[in-house]
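Hi, here's the filled form for the chain we discussed.

Project: internal
Contact: R.S.
Residues: 185
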Amino acid sequence: MNLLKEITLTIFSFLLIAMALVYSVILLGWADIDFLIDMHNHIMNTANIRYVLLAINILVMIFALLAVFGGPSKKETRKTGVLLENEKGKLLISKETLENLVNSVLKGFENVHMNAIRTELDEDSKLNVNISISVGENVVIKELSNAIQNQVKETIKKASDLEVKNVNISIRGILEEKKTVDSIK
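And the returned structure, exactly as it came back:
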């Protein structure tokens, strides 16, 4: 559908440019309108050309209707977020919103620093969350990751009613705690 929209918009752009150019040339007096009338009469008197132009016009109108009323495909929607529908209407939850939810969960963990979050939707609108973090020095990574995974799943489920398929965590590094003056003495 995306390619069809691009083709349709390209065709319309060329048609509008051609129409504007012809009209401008006539308004500036560089061309005589009688030439256009003669060309129009020739087209109307030649059946083959008339039918070809009619077919082209019908195709352009169909493409235009598809481009205008086709709406985004499921694949396009997956790139921007999750589309939820019910009898009352539609709700689009953007990927940025989901990533902000995950970020708010990570802020609740004291020993998590410098995070990067990426969300992906699979074909069944199941969410995969990829988190890249650095952690504090004296952290049990396995316990922290389990806690983060559970909290992320619960928060997203509660806020959006979406199922989280995976919460993948990668640890970028371990940050050293800053030494205070009292601990040195």
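Let me know if anything looks off before we file it.
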